Amino acid sequence: xxxxxxxxxxxxxxxxxxxxxxxxxxxxxxxxxxxxxxxxxxxxxxxxxxxxxxxxxxxxxxxxxxxxxxxxxxxxxxxxxxxxxxxxxxxxxxxxxxxxxxxxxxxxxxxxxxxxxxxxxxxxxxxxxxxxxxxxxxxxxxxxxxxxxxxxxxxxxxxxxxxxxxxxxxxxxxxxxxxxxxxxxxxxxxxxxxxxxxxxxxxxxxxxxxxxxxxxxxxxxxxxxxxxxxxxxxxxxxxxxxxxxxxxxxxxxxxxxxxxxxxxxxxxxxxxxxxxxxxxxxxxxxxxxxxxxxxxxxxxxxxxxxxxxxxxxxxxxxxxxxxxxxxxxxxxxxxxxxxxxxxxxxxxxxxxxxxxxxxxxxxxxxxxxxxxxxxxxxxxxxxxxxxxxxxxxxxxxxxxxxxxxxxxxxxxxxxxxxxxxxxxxxxxxxxxxxxxxxxxxxxxxxxxx
Length: 449
Hints:
Blueprint: E1 3-5, E2 13-17, H1 23-35, E3 36-45, H2 49-60, E4 65-73, E5 81-91, E6 101-103, H3 108-118, E7 125-128, H4 131-134, H5 139-147, E8 151-154, E9 163-166, E10 178-182, H6 188-197, E11 205-209, H7 216-228, E12 233-236, E13 240-243, E14 248-249, E15 252-254, H8 259-272, E16 274-279, H9 292-298, E17 302-306, E18 309-313, E19 322-324, H10 332-339, E20 345-349, H11 361-371, E21 375-379, E22 382-386, E23 394-395, H12 401-408, E24 418-420, H13 432-440, E25 445-447
Parallel strand pairs: 2-16, 3-14, 3-15, 6-7, 10-11, 19-20, 23-24
Antiparallel strand pairs: 1-24, 1-25, 3-5, 4-5, 7-9, 8-9, 11-13, 12-13, 16-18, 17-18, 20-22, 21-22
């Protein structure tokens, strides 16, 4: 297995950089554009494994999509972050598959959005994925589709991919919509996927939740993107969601920088000293993970913001934090690593559902913190971290991009930090290690397996 060793910088950071485009917004916009009437243009999109999985799946469903040559952001001479442009000729809700099987690879958002979209097709669609994705349960989404009259057959393990998804009756009529009840405490992506398909259902869609909704800001982002393509969505988690059968109209959209990816860059000065300005994420950002800047400020970091930028400077001391991350669970590993150098014991709560992400993120985070000499414990819905002095070690990533990106920050402070399987960051942040090295002016060293 390939490993990457990190060298602490020889001087404090003084950098300005823009993260790649938001994965969450890119994949939502791709679905809306694909189902819209007319041609849509998406700029500053994320070009990474997760978004290319969505492009390929939509193409397999008969949507003409063109990914154009990317432009590179070389702000202040730092390593380029590719910001792509995608042109989508929407099918006006008429999904006509051109492939026998469509592959979501390792992209959970793709699988969970594409399954309802595939239900719009007047023929059978086979949806599959890579082994890591096939292992992730989607039984609640399957049940929701069945309650809408969709024929879903699990061709492998019950409640998991691969799936055969068929139109709602033998005449070949696609899903017509209706009213369903869905759990909200497993994954917000199930709800988002259903909502995204809703405007193209002839009867519209009504979704009531039987449990509290987790990651609610992601659902708000879904609705915001849908409305920008002309959809009509009413209600909320308390009183249910209603989607009118309006279809979508084409649009031109510029994608925000990715707030989750920005978290690693914002945290960098806390490990290396100095300051960093992150462009594209500020006070007007629509993504829930933008709360990371506020969390750092509460821990003692020096944080200033404008409408489209955030600057973080090193703190003299960092305080422990007690935080519920149910609405921003992708920040769990970033906060855990920052907590490892804070004074006191930090607690992260409300994230029991991340055990079913790319890996068991609670167990993986605690295991790797212990590996670098930090005391950490699992709890029922999160973990605790006792701040200390992390030392070098070979850090396992479990094929999880967020494990790799967060624990790499320790290499800005401690010698001997080595990241296993660094290529896993291609899922959402291609070039991450080049950006990290460019921030400090030093180079990460490639090691032999």
